[in-house]
Amino acid sequence: MVQKAKILLVDDRPENLLALEAILSALDQTLVRASSGEEALKALLTDDFAVILLDVQMPGMDGFETAAHIKRRERTRDIPIIFLTAINHGPHHTFRGYAAGAVDYISKPFDPWVLRAKVSVFVELYTKNCQLREQAALLRLQLEGGGSHNGDGGKETAGLLAELSARLAAVEEQAEALTKQLGEDAADAAVVATAAHLERKLTGLRRALDALEPGAGGAAPMLPAQG
């Protein structure tokens, strides 16, 4: 059974958090509330999240400062952040959001369907990434345990490789769709960097899988960690 992804909702106004929960409940994922930047950072210390919806205007630590802390931490730096704001100060304000590490910047009031669709892309990528990690762990155990000691060992390893390759292909397809979507939304350096980071991770895993294919030769490489 696939574990539900966690989505972090950060807003100092309870009515806004309630509205976000109503919009995203259809995704059937775990929604976690945080009413301040400090509370969000505390939640990120213990839990893994697929995506963060972060309000810009908050008393004390605002959204930009919260995002800066998130991006400085190795554990959380790669979590996608979608900024939500009730004000619009033009391109400069939007640029500040992307410069802080956001993958998207949405002004309120927003279209519920659009927000739900954007969040669902990141949830799908996160879920597939988790599945890949599990499959990679199983493959490591199979290889380290010398599955070829029994007659079916080679077939089991080949089956794992085929399944992992198929899962990776699905993630690559999702990543390509995400890159196109981000490109349409904002041609910003921070967005391009986010897409490029994901692409590098996928390329590394694909290389490792190709090297493990029968006839590739050489020692079995370490599969890259999927953070």
UniProtKB/TrEMBL annotation:
One of its GO terms (biological process) is phosphorelay signal transduction system. It comes from the Bacteria. Keywords: Phosphoprotein. This is Response regulator PleD. InterPro entries: Bact_response_regulator, CheY-like_superfamily, Sig_transdc_resp-reg_receiver. SUPFAM superfamilies: CheY-like. The lineage of its organism: Bacteria, Bacillati, Actinomycetota, Actinomycetes, Kitasatosporales.
